[in-house]
Structures are given as structure tokens and as C-alpha cells.
Amino acid sequence: MFESLKHHIPKRIGEEKEMSFAVLIPLIKKGDEYHVLFEVRAKHLNKQPGEVCFPGGKVEPGESTYEAAVRETMEELFVEKETIQVYGALDYLLTPYQTRIEPFLAELRDYHGQFSRDEVDSVFTVPLDFFLENEPEYYSNVLMTKPQKNFPFADIPNGENYPWAKGKNEVCLYRYKKHVIWGMTARLLLYNIQYIRD
Length: 198
Prior knowledge:
The chain is α+β, with helices and mostly antiparallel strands. Helix content is about 15%, strand content about 35%. Strand 6 and strand 7 (about 100-110) form a beta hairpin. The mean pLDDT is about 95.
């Protein structure tokens, strides 16, 4: 009895239900300074149309997060693998929505502003120094539990008046010229800027 625990490696409960995504944080050299490249998602997309993001997407079966980040960048920005210099993996993000997002820092060489109209509406760059010198705006959203109508309220203490726990989701936002960089994109940059600085 309990023999299986001798070799058990603990994992996060519910981890198998998470969707895994990978993104590339692309740097471009302009003169003597680095710029961060952003995409504006195509307006005809079903999810998050018109939002600012990094190139990336869902990790396919049998694919590493590194491979997914590079593949998606090639597809979205029409670049060759040889022009993508990946410097390393950065800290990843777990969202309240069962998604895990793993970012990689890379430099794009010989990039001339091309992109796939199927996924991208436009691209723009922001000097890296802007993020090193400016703090984002911070906001906090309340996350609440909303049970379904068929939930067995009669079987739990306080029934429909049960005091469900509430959570908070930090949202940060950068403003640069006409662009608003916010949400997970801004958060990935904010918490990884220390490694880019070094």
C-alpha cells in the first residue's frame, strides 16, 4: 500500500487541462538601439481582433514551446528560421483561464515589416528603452465564481448564499503614441524586462 508514492513526482492539480501557448518577444536593431516589435491582430479574427500582441500561438501535439514560438513567428511575419536568433526562455505566465504562456526573447535580423494578412493587421515597434524607463499603469479586476443553475446548493452550507472566494487579476497597460499595450502582452514584458535589461 502507498508504494506508488515512493516514485511520485508531484504536479499541479488540473495541469493536464491547461492549454499551452508560446510567444516570441522580438527585438529589432534600429541604428544603435533595440526596438520591441508588436503585432496588431487582424480584425476578422474570432479571438481578440485588433489587439496588440507578440507573434505566437498554441503549442501543437509533439511540439516544444520553443518550436511553437519560432513556427508561429515564421508564419505570421514571413521570416526564415535562420533570421530568428533566440536568446532564451523567459518567465512564463499562468492565467486564471487555464492557459500557460511561455515567452522567448529573440532578435529578428533582416526584417522589413512584412506580415501575414490572414493573422496580422499591422506591426509597429517601440524602443526598448521606453519599457526600461517607464512603469505601466496598474489596474485590478475582481474574479468571481458564478455557479451554474444546476449546482446542488441544497447540499452545501448556506446554500445559494455560500460566500464564494473572490480573486484579483492584475492588469497592466502601457501607452505609446497611439498604441495601447495591455493585458497578458504587457504583463509578459513587464515581468521579464529585468532579464532584457541585463
